[in-house]
Amino acid sequence: MTGPAPAVAAVRVAVRRALAELETGALVLVACSGGPDSLALAGATAFVAPRLGLRAGAVTVDHGLQDGSAERAEQVALLLRGLALDPVDAVAVEVGGTGGPEGAARTARHAALAERAEAHAAAAVLFGHTRDDQAETVLLRLARGSGARSLAGMAARSGRWLRPLLDVDRATVHAAADLMGLAAWQDPHNADFAYARSRVRHDALPGLERALGPGVAEALARTAGLLRDDADALDEWADRAREGVTAAPGELDAAALAELPRAVRTRLLRRAALEAGCPAGALAARHVFELDRLVTDWRGQRRVDLPGGLAGGRKTGRIVFFANKKGF
């Protein structure tokens, strides 16, 4: 008796590894758009989960951004039920305008998935991101001048979010979907050059492959993994250093901060700004750099303007955060 084709086996093995530590009887939900990546993940999960003593369901999200999206979501849900996944939910969301079209859609989608996971008491939500998606993410963030944590890309595990296919290339995943007989929907947004990720996928990465040779996507994904190890170590160092630099709630001792390596110091400054109320998506590296100058290049600066109507300043040897009003 022959086994599954290599592409199908590769996807199933990746899913098995991701689910191996979950408790028997736990429910996992596959986030499925109906595209080949998430359908291959759904098919593999439907096969693997029962063999591990787990239950498997799925959620498909209708963003309402294209004609016929509601009908398409119901078709995807019907296909998922045909894989014996249960429960299967089709959820309509309203996409806001904050963070650009891609970011706003992602925010709405993740909120819906989190709500469904809570409603079903799911142990994990599975995403179909591949190694190629990871490489695209690294390139996009590199172009924005991101730091090590951001360049580390997507995590294979973040809370209940799991990405089993991050070490599997897109071609293998698509082949697996075809071999499973899953008719995938091709999202036209994936080929629309109005979106930065589409330009990276169809222009930038292929151009790098032509200029540098094959293996660029794999190398970028590998770099993300190495940077994640470094970022985790620096975060742990910052955790240990925090008590020693905290002068009072919401205040950091400038002299103690100055004794730390910059990579650790800036992490502590960023955390303090976020805890003071700065919006995470708006707090940029330049803001943290100016806060760091209050520690390392103090020349009597009055304050550093921060997002969210806040400011940071130095007062009596401490870095403090406050409402951004004149007079400091």
Write the layout of secondary structure elements.
Blueprint: H1 6-19, E1 27-31, H2 36-51, E2 55-62, H3 69-82, E3 88-92, H4 100-120, E4 124-126, H5 131-143, H6 148-151, E5 157-158, E6 161-162, H7 170-179, H8 196-212, H9 216-245, E7 246-248, E8 251-253, H10 254-258, H11 262-276, H12 285-296, E9 304-306, E10 310-315, E11 318-323
Parallel strand pairs: 1-2, 1-4, 2-3, 4-6
Antiparallel strand pairs: 5-6, 7-8, 8-11, 9-10, 10-11
Helix pairs in contact: 1-2, 1-7, 2-7, 5-8, 5-9, 9-11, 11-12
Question: Summed up, what is this model?
Answer:
The protein is of the alpha/beta class. 52% of the residues lie in helices and 14% in strands.
How would you describe the overall organization of this protein?
Residues 252-309 form the tRNA(Ile)-lysidine synthase substrate-binding domain. This is tRNA(Ile)-lysidine synthase. Residues 28-202 form the tRNA(Ile)-lysidine/2-thiocytidine synthase N-terminal domain. One of its GO terms (molecular function) is tRNA(Ile)-lysidine synthase activity. One of its GO terms (cellular component) is cytoplasm. The protein has 328 residues and is of the alpha/beta class. The protein has two domains: 6-219, 3-Layer(aba) Sandwich (Rossmann fold); 249-323, 2-Layer Sandwich (Uridine Diphospho-n-acetylenolpyruvylglucosamine Reductase, domain 3). Helix content is 52%, strand content 14%. It contains twelve helices and eleven strands. It has helices at 6-19, 36-51, 69-82, 100-120, 131-143, 148-151, 170-179, 196-212, 216-245, 254-258, 262-276, 285-296; strands spanning 27-31, 55-62, 88-92, 124-126, 157-158, 161-162, 246-248, 251-253, 304-306, 310-315, 318-323. The strands form two sheets. The chain has a six-stranded mixed sheet, with helices on both faces. A five-stranded antiparallel sheet has the order 7-8-11-10-9. Helix 11 packs across helix 12 (285-296). The longest helix has 30 residues, at 216-245. The protein is elongated. The mean pLDDT is 91.
